Amino acid sequence: MSTARDGLTGKPEEPGDVLGTVFNIQRYSIQDGPGIRTTVFLKGCPLRCAWCSNPESQNSRPEIAHRDSLCTKCGLCVTACKVRAISLDDKGVSINRQLCTNCGECVKVCIPGALKVFGETMSAGEVFRQIKKDADFYRESGGGVTVSGGEPLSQPDFVASLFKLCRDNGINTCIETCGLASVEALEKVLPYTSLVLFDIKLSEPEAHRKWTGRSNEEIIRNLGLIVKKGIPVIIRIPLIPGINDSDEELKNIAHIAAGFPPVRVNILPYHKFGMGKYQMLDRKYYLEELNTQTDTEVQKDKRLFESFGLVCEVVA
Questions:
Q1: pTM attached to this predicted model
Q2: What does the pLDDT look like over 265-295, one tens digit per residue?
Q3: Domain 15-59+120-314: CATH architecture, name and number where available
Q4: DSSP 3-state assignment of 236?
Q5: What distance in Å separates the CA atoms of residue 257 and residue 200, rounded to the nearest whole number?
Q6: What is the C-alpha to C-alpha distance for residues 289 and 13, in angstroms, rounded to an integer?
Q7: Which of 67, 73, 146, 275 could form a cystine bridge with 32, CB 3.0-4.6 A?
Q8: What is the CATH topology of the domain spanning 65-117?
C-alpha cells in the first residue's frame, strides 16, 4: 500500500503509520534466513507459480477461506452473508467467489472456526511491535526479521517503513523475493535490507512464463542490480520434479548463479504443504501427482551446484 498521509498537511506520516496487507506473522522461524527470525508474510504476488505453497498470498486483497473438516453445517454463515455468496447443501458450504466481497461477516459467526480471512490491514508499527518481542533471540542467534509473501516488493512503502524501524532498533532485515519488481520498489527497500533471498525458478524466459505466468528477464536484471549494491544474496531454487530438476536445467541455473559472485545457493526440495489451502480457497492444485525428491537425488543436485564453485545448502 502507499504511504499514509496526514489529512491536514498532506505530508507523509511516520514510518510506523504506513499500512500493508499481512496474512501471517510467524515467530521462531529458522528457514527464512540465518538464526532465529520472525517471518512476515505479505499479500500480493505478480507470479502464479504452479507449485506455489502459499496460494493465499497471490491476490493482494483479503480472501475468505473455508475448511470442510471443521464445518458443522450450522448455516449461520449463509444468514450472515449480505450478498448471498454462501450456500449450504448436503455436501456442505459453498462460496460463490464471483459474488463474495471478502467482508468477513461470515467469519464472525462461524463458531467452529471453519471460516477465516487470509489477510488483514496492519501498520508497520503494529507489525514491528510483534517483531521486537523476540529481539533478544535475534541478537543471540544472528537472526532478525524476514519479509516474505507473496512478493514483499509488491508493497515497497510498507516494507521500507518496517525495515527502517527494524534497522533503527538494531534488528537485521531480509526480503524473500521472486525478483519481479520495479527498480523504484527496489530503490525504496534495499537501503534498509541486510540480506536478500532471491528465487531463481527456471533459466529460460519462455519456460518461466509457462510455469509462473511471467518471463524471467526482468528478474535476472534485478538480481544484477541487487548484487551490484553489495547486499548479500542467497539464491533459492525450488526443485520441482519434471519441471526444473533435470541436470541440464540445473546446470543452466547454476551458470546464472555463478555469474553473480559471491552469491550462495539454497536448494529447496519439493513439498505439498500448501495443498490444503488450495481446497480452502476453491482452487485446483495441478501438480498433485508429483513426489518429493529422495535424499540421494537432492544430494546429487547439491554436488552439481558445488561443481560450479558455488556454496550450496539444502533447506528442507
A1: 0.92
A2: 999 999 998 999 999 999 999 999 999 999 9
A3: Alpha-Beta Barrel (3.20)
A4: strand
A5: 9
A6: 50
A7: 146
A8: Alpha-Beta Plaits (3.30.70)
